[in-house]
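Morning. Coffee machine broken again, so started the prediction first thing and wrote up yesterday's gels while waiting. Chain of 179 residues, entered below exactly as on the submission form.
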Amino acid sequence: MAASKIVLGPTGETVRENIARVRRERNLTLRALSERLTQVGRPISNSSISQVETGARRVDVDDLLAFSIALDVSPNTLLMPAHYDGERYVNITGAERVSTRSAWHFLDGMRSLTEQSLDFVVRSQPPFMSHRQSVDSARPAPAGEPLRIARRTQSDGETVDLIVSVGYGDLIRDNDEDD
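Came back before lunch.
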């Protein structure tokens, strides 16, 4: 019996294309990438990497993280279509035809693709992120002011400082004035 052909969805296609693209941009051979994957504890042979890049082999979640570490890119880099126009429409698994910008904000945990609600943003933040300010639920919202969440990040490539603020108004400008 012949093996059935693997059919990748739009995100699987994007991941395989991006693995090949980033590997070439980093000037890595299949063998060099295979060695890096072995070093990070996820041995994948040269031929299996070639199968990933041609779509003959799927990438599971553990593979995705190992490829990200071995290629030294964020998993989002492998999951996102490599378009530089944020308004270009792309297909991602589960949500057809979304702008590249919306897809990135979704992967970054800042925008739902199914509803307009801050609940998604709150649910998407890891528990270790502390809120710089919180909303006083007993105080009514200012007239016409939507509740907002702001995230400020700075990094020197090793240390990451992150502040998450929840409140009303322009949270980033308001926080800059407090500093």
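Helices lie at 10-25, 30-39, 46-54, 61-71, 75-79, 100-107, 118-124, 171-178. Going to sketch it on the whiteboard this afternoon.
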